[in-house]
Amino acid sequence: LNKVDQILKDHGLRVTNMRKNILEIFSEKRIALSNNDIEKELEFPDRITVYRTLKKFEESGILHRVYDTSDNAKYALCINGCDEENHLDGHVHFECNACGNTICLDDTPFPMIKAPSGYIGSKTEILISGICKSCNVMN
Ligand SMILES: [Zn+2]
Ligand SMILES: [Zn+2]
Ligand SMILES: [Zn+2]
Q1: Most exposed among 27, 41, 59, 112, judged by the fewest C-beta atoms under 10 Å?
Q2: 6-59 confidence digits (pLDDT tens)
Q3: d(Cα 13, Cα 9) in Å, to the nearest integer?
Q4: Model pTM score
Q5: Which residues have CB atoms below 5 A from the ion given as ligand 3?
């Protein structure tokens, strides 16, 4: 089994060409991608199927959703161990003002942020915008 087949199998999903193609795009690009981004990459894009596939992947713990500063929904590959019950992707996201890419900072966990007493938090999101590593020529 190749990596993509293995991911589908691990999450109990049937292997289809569309699912494989979409997952391959994600593992190749390593950035967060919107429905439109995916459609552009596919040889035979089908809006509804792409939409459904991304939703299914999110529900299965293969992708997590990221909103960029313009409030566009994008998806990014999950770390191992996410499943339909729990997404463990408690990391910071970075949006580059130069290339427009949204990137998972997998190794940058959230600092401890606690909601005040009486509030029940269920999700924390942190998005840093600026200049990414590839666009930073000083780097
Ligand atoms: Zn996840
Ligand atoms: Zn950049
Ligand atoms: Zn992420």
Answers
A1: 112
A2: 999 999 999 999 999 999 999 999 999 999 999 999 998 899 999 999 999 999
A3: 6
A4: 0.88
A5: 76, 89, 104
